[in-house]
Amino acid sequence: MNLDLYYLSRGPLFKFAFLFFIFGMTYRLLFVLFLGWKKDYAPARGSALRGLMKELVNHIWPSSARRDVYARRMLALLAGFCFHVGAFIVILFQPAHVKVWGEILGFEWPSFPMGVVDFGASVAITSLLVIVVNQLTHPVRKLTTTPSQWVNIFFALLPLLTGWMTYHHLWLPYQTLLTLHMLAVDWLLIWMPLSKLSHVLYFVINFFNHGIKFGKMGTL
Amino acid sequence: MSPATVDEKKAVDLFIKTVGGEIAAELEACMHCGVCAEACQFYITTGKPEYAPVWKVELLRKAYEQNFTIIGKLKAMLGLEKPISKEEIAHWSVLDFQACTVCRRCSLVCPMSIDVGGLIAKVRAGLTAAGATPPDLVAMTDKQINVGSPNGATEDDWRAWFEWAERERGIKIPQDVKGADTLVVFTMLELGSFRENLVYVARILNAAGEKWTVSLRARDAFNMGKVIGDKKLEKRFAERIINVAKELGVKRVLITECGHGYAALREDMPNIYGGPLPFEVIHITELMNRFFKQGRIKLRKGVFDNGHRITFHDSCKIQRTGGLFDEPRELLKFLAPNSFVEMNPNRDMTICCGGGGGVRAIKDAYPLRMSAFKLKVEQVEEAQADTVVMTCSNCRLQFMDGFKHYQLEKEAVGLVEMVAKALID
Fold it and tell me: Which pTM was predicted?
C-alpha cells in the first residue's frame, strides 16, 4: 500500500479523528446533561450513599438473586465482559499504543508483554464473535437487534482484527496491514460519538442516577 | 382496540415532552442485551420475546432516536425509519398494559443501570395520551372520576361500610375529626373484598391510642391516574385526599393495604407539586411496626405458631420500591417465630404477583397473569408454605385467584388481620 496513505492515516487523519472523538463525546455528554434533570421531592426512606455503594457491589459481585437472573444469560454476559477487558488491555497496554498515548498525554505507563496483549486481543475478538452468534440465535436479541448494532460490531471488530493480523503478519504485507489498522482506528474514533458505541458515557450517568434513586427509595 | 381510534402523534408528543437527561441517558446506554427479560415473569413463563422489558420500551426508544439524535433524524429524513404508527400504538398497548405490571424487577438487573420499568411507565403514559388505554381500565377511570371509586362504589356504599363496622362489630369509625393526628384512607379493592380490614385497622389504631379519622370526601386511596399513566388524573384523585388532610390539619395520611395508592401519594405527588407534602404519608405496615416498637400495641408472641408454615410475599410498591422490607418481617417473626420461612428470591428481588399495575383488572390478561403467577406457585411450594402473608390487597386477590386457578389449598392473608387478631387488649 502507498506509504503516503500510511503516513496520512497515522498523522493528520489520526489527529482529526482523535479531536472529533473528544469533541463528539463531549457534545453527546453535554447534550444529555442539558436536557434537564428533575429534583426528587419524595421523602427518602434510605440513603443515596448506601444506594451507590450497593450499586457498585451489585455490579462487581451481584447478590445471589441477581446471579440467578444472570445465570440465564451467562454466556452473553461473560462475552460482553471479556470483550471489554480484552479490548482495554490492547488499547491501553500494547507497547506501540502506549507510545501513542505518551505522545497525546505527555506521559507513558508500563506496557504489557506482547504475549499478554495478543491473548487480550484474541479474547476480545472471540467474545465479539460469541456476541454475534448470540444476536443471531437468542429470541430476544433477534427481535431487539437493529441494523445499526451490526454496523457497530463491524466497526468495533475491524481495528481489533487488523491489529491482530498486523502483529501476526497474516495474509497481507505488513505495511498494508498497518495502514488498514490505522484507517480502522481512525474510522472507529469518528464513529464512536455518532453511535451507541458512546454508551460508556451514559453508563456512568446511569450508575449514579440509579444508585441514588433506588438508594433513596430504600430498595438498595 | 382498533388502531384507527388512536392518535399516535399524541404519544410521540408526550414522549418528546417527557424526555429529560435521565431518560436520554438511559435510552442511549441501552445495548439491547435483553438481560432484563430474564427478570420478567411474563417473559420467563411464556418465552415470548415481545414480553422482554427492552421491547416494551421500543416506542420510547424510537421516538427519542427520531427526534433527539442526529443519526436518528437523518434515518427518518431518508425514510430508513418510519415514525410510530397507529398499529404500533395498538400493539404496544397490549404489551405494556397486559404483559407488564411495572414491577421494576427488570430495573434491578440491567447491566447498564437503566430503570427499565420506569421507562415502561413512561410508555404507558404515552399510550394513554394516544387513547390506547385498555377499555377495562378506561371504564374504571371513568367511574373514579364520576363516582369516586374505580369499581363504582359510591359515597353511600362507603358510608354503609363505616356504618356496618359500628352496627355489626361495635367499632365506631370517626369521620372528619378536625385536629386528628391521622387520616386513614382505605381502597375500594380492599373493603370490597376484605371488609373486615376496616375493623382490624380500627382496632389497631384504637389500641395504640391514636387520634384518627376517615373522611367520605377522601375515601379511596386507589389511583387510576397512576395506573394508566395520566399525571393530571393522578393529581386530581390524590388531591381528594390531600385537600381533606390539609383541611383537617392531620399530621399524617395512613394508607392501608394498597401499594400503588401509597406510592402515588408518597412518591409521585411531591414531584408533581414540586415540593414535599405538609404531612407524612405512611403505610399501615410501617405504622403497625412503629406502634409495636414503641410499645403502643402489645401482641401475643407466637400466636400464629399453629403447625402451619407461613411465608411473606414482598409487594412491588410497598417492599421493592417502598423499602418496607424489615417492618413486616419483624412483626411476623414475633407472631410466628417457629412458623415463618422466607421465599426465595425475596426483598428487593421479589417476584411480582403478576396482577399489579392494572393487569388484574383487564379481563383479557387473565391467561397472562396466571402464567406469571406460576413463578409464585414455585416459590410457595419450594418454601413449603401453607399461608402467604402480604401487605397489599391487590396482591392478595391475585394470590387468591392464582391458588384457585392452580387448585392449591393455600391461604393468602393480609398482615393487618394477623396483627389485629394478635392484639392484647
Answer: 0.96
